[in-house]
Amino acid sequence: MQQETPSQGQPQDAAAAKSNEEKATFSLPKSLQWIPANWTWPKIRTAIRCALAAWLSAILFVIPAVERHMGQASYIILITAFHSPPSDPFIAVLEREVIICSIVAATSAWCLLGIFLANLTRTHIDYTITLAQAVTGRYIEARPTLVLAAFVFVWSLALLYIRARKGPGPYFMGTLLSCICLDITITTAVFFPFPHYALCKNILIPLGLHSCIALLVSLFVFPQTISAHFTSRLQGVLGPLIKHVELHRMLKGISVNSEGFAHRVEDIRKSTAAAETAIVPLAVASRLLPSDLIYSRFSPMDFKAFPDIVHRMAVRANGMDAYFSLIRTTSKSILEPASTHPGAHDNAEAELQEDMPSTSTASTTTSTLRPRSHQASRVFNLSSRKSRRLVMLTRSKSRPSRAARKTEGTVGMYDDRHYTSHENTISGDSTDGYTQEATHLLLVGCDTLLELNQQALQTALDWLSTARKGRFAFWRSTKQKNDDWRATLDRLKRLRARLEVEIAEFRKTSRMSVVDPYKEALAAGSQKGSDQPSHRHLFHCYVYQYQLLRFSNQSARMLDMIISMEQGRSAPRIWTPVKRLFVWNSRNLLDTDNVDDENPDTVEGLEPNDMEVLGTAKRRDPDALPPTNQFEWVMSKAYSFLKSFGSGDALFALKAAILTILMCLPAFLKETAPFAYRNRSEWAIAMSQLTLARFRGDTTFGFTSRVLSTIGGGLIGTCIWYISSPTDEGNPYGLVAVLAVCFPFFFYFRLYAPVASVTNTVLFLTIMMVVGYSYQDRVLALPGSPGRGITVAWHRLVLVICGVTAAFLFSFLPPAMTIRSYQRRLLATTSSELGAAYCSIISLASTPSEKRSKEVIASLIAVRSKLNRSAVLKQNTLYEFSLRGKWPAKRYAKIMDLQLALSYSLSYLLSVFEQMDKAWTQSLLARTRFLDPSFQGDVLAVISMITTALRTGEPLPQITPCPLVNRFYSQSSGDMDEENDFRLPKRVTTETLQDEQYLMFSVGMSTAFDIIRGVDELMVAAKEIVGEQYPISGLHKRMAAVKVSAWRTGDNV
């Protein structure tokens, strides 16, 4: 008993300790974890700066004289304080305010023109009429009202077209305020029997005061330069990369089959995703670097190269992570058992399996080392087993449940059978027990280089945080400054030298540890190949090592940039814009918080002719020959211009303009105009304009979020009003005091809360409208005032419900577009762009061009950005109601994942072509059949079919050129003629495996295989969405007979 007591007590003690630890550790709910995550001084001071600007606006608002000067829409100064806070550097705030004020000023000018022309049609003009007399509606006339209605229609069409065309960015706030300006000005102007030009000042004056306050506060209160903003964004990329490298080092010694290894790999992928996510804000921040005004040692343009460096590092980090996907695939069986459901499919499967030899279920990427010496010496022999990933895809998706089989047929069976027969024909025996040893050798050999990469990234991060310190330390002596500068420079040089030595050492010796197990098999006359590990493990390690080398080169490049800046910039000076104030490009004005109204037929960030790579390969007009004279050229341009009015953006804008006119009817009719004015109908009009979106799901989401946020904002605003003013008279001092307390918390939520942008915007808009109208009623005695406190909140809620309900119902009228169709068309567009990038990369392999290479990289970045934004947008498909059935979200997600993986593989292949010698590149092109017109014709035909099927929704043929991997095998697995083999070794030796060019060649072969396999998988996934047509029965029997015959005779198929 004495021996049993400790054994029983230890688990109890451990459980008690764990329980006490859980009690002692307090963790916030997941929905509130954003609060401590953003609780840093740089973010807190930004919130304080925004709160101060809003509080100054509130002070101006409560001063009676200023409020009277601003007019009956004085509350706009409070709304704009939240809609356009000075949260960015001064130059960025200046740019945004200029854009907003320009759009609103143009709207005001349009309204003035409309008022002037409408006045020309009046039969009765009286300048003595007051506002109280005019809003009775007795002076409304038909002809002026029609003129004003036409102006509302045309300008609403223009504003909403701009919003739809330009997409997310600073235009949203400009169009929002312009819609409010248009609605208030025009619906009020119809009442007056004279041209009341002063109405436009009701919006312009509060907006102008807000812009002045925002600019002054951003300039003098915790000012931030573009360079500082950029470096903080750059640190946001380096932090996850440091974590990424650290986690890679922590994998050493952990079993690849353990849960700890899987969790650690998942953390690695999260850190990579965090780095890639942070690159988009970094690119936006770098746009204004040439316009920065700063006193510093370093020029803003000195940092211009860093975005390219860290983006390449993020791509390389993703490539390193691919190793874990490879060993995960090869460490377990991916062939699923045959379906138990009876049917033709099962009978056909049985026919195939009866004539095929049994094979191991292990998956591999390359052939195993055979006992035959000529097999062991093959320079590269991709095994078919890696393609079983596609077999898993087709089998898992082509065998639905009983319920699903009643309504949906199977697809991809031809691909499945073709793959299976090919697998059984050329696959060989292999084992996967070497995965753990290969991973251990790999991580041990790479550990020192990973450590130095971690140190380099950490050093760069620390340097960025101190790069601008000491600029104003005038009390320090020159000697102290020089000593610190030399110490920093020496530390950077020592680290750079160590990194360079380790990279060279890694290339010569460290990476060779993964080659050691193969030396015996490759010895002359060795007959022990069957006991040696598969080539796939070596090639997996090659992929990791290649990506690590490229990652290390970028780390060294970053240190070189820092050292160069330190050596070339010894003393601080004033840096001013050298070209122009704003280097302005609408394609770069992307707001990652807003992804509404994107065009599914274009990829933002690409030039119109970026993908025309073959010169003569251009789009043609199928209905007309090219113009032969000047008249035909002019008419063709006119036709293209008129045709543009039938685009999705134009039709949406036309639909929204019609809705605006319908919502304005109560304000235009003489009988209902007084009622509309008293109940502030412009709130409902503006809400309907801004709720209606191109996609029905977004409109429904806007309906829900606007109603809920209006309720919440109304309650909060009511509480603020009654706390600050216990009586209905209003207390300006109490209101300013309460707002001073609330604003810092409001802006912390406004800037950093992970909620939808629409919800965030409408919430604070409602709060400020309730407070603003309640106090405004105390100072300005306006007819039809909505009241104070809860009365204002109730009026606001009713009108918001009216506006969003009108938009919701109107969204069902044609032309109506759903996010479901948007996703399909978008995936068609990105498929086409990936195909164009694929052609460009093959062309660059034959005819290198640095400029063209950068364009291809930019196109792949744009495609990935488009896909990532669409992943956010498709969340609103939950709000699209359909009686036809559920949307196949997983199938679309599968295509999106495949396209993202394909874009990364294309980036890796381009990198290999850029690094490899010309002779090895030509050998790689020949081995992969990338220069075979017949094979390339099949690849491009498959991409074209996928694009067309996704765009039109038409089913794909049951029999296509897929699987392409089979023909890829027929060349890469076979012997090649001496005269066509360039300098590629005919036999693999130890020296060959140690050659860095062979490493890149192997990575290129693996990447090429991934691309071709990805196209095959994309075809199967597309068939899952659109279905199949043109079936041919009995083909599988012929295919089985041919494959079995080939297997029995030992011939390649």
From TrEMBL:
Q: Where is the Integral membrane bound transporter domain?
A: 679-810
Q: Give the coiled coil ranges.
A: 482-509
Provide the primary localization: membrane
- What UniProt keywords are attached to this protein's entry? Coiled coil, Membrane, Transmembrane, Transmembrane helix
List, alphabetically, the Pfam families matched.
Answer: ArAE_2_N (PF10337), BRE4 (PF10334), FUSC_2 (PF13515)
Q: Which portions of the chain have biased composition (kind: Low complexity)?
A: 358-368
Q: Where are the transmembrane segments?
A: 46-66, 97-118, 146-164, 170-192, 204-222, 650-669, 703-724, 730-748, 755-773, 793-814
Annotated Putative ER transporter 6TM N-terminal domain residues: 44-515
Superkingdom? Eukaryota
Q: InterPro entries, per this entry?
A: ArAE_2_N, BRE4-related_DUF2421, Memb_transporter_dom
The subcellular location is: Membrane
Q: Where is this region: Disordered?
A: 336-378
Matching PANTHER family, A to Z? Answer: ARAE_2_N DOMAIN-CONTAINING PROTEIN-RELATED, ER TRANSPORTER 6TM N-TERMINAL DOMAIN-CONTAINING PROTEIN
Q: What is this protein called?
A: ER transporter 6TM N-terminal domain-containing protein
Could you state one GO cellular component term attached to this entry?
Answer: membrane
Q: Where is the DUF2421 domain?
A: 821-1030
Record has Transferase as a keyword: no
Q: What membrane topology is annotated for this entry? A: Multi-pass membrane protein
Lineage in the entry? Eukaryota, Fungi, Dikarya, Basidiomycota, Agaricomycotina
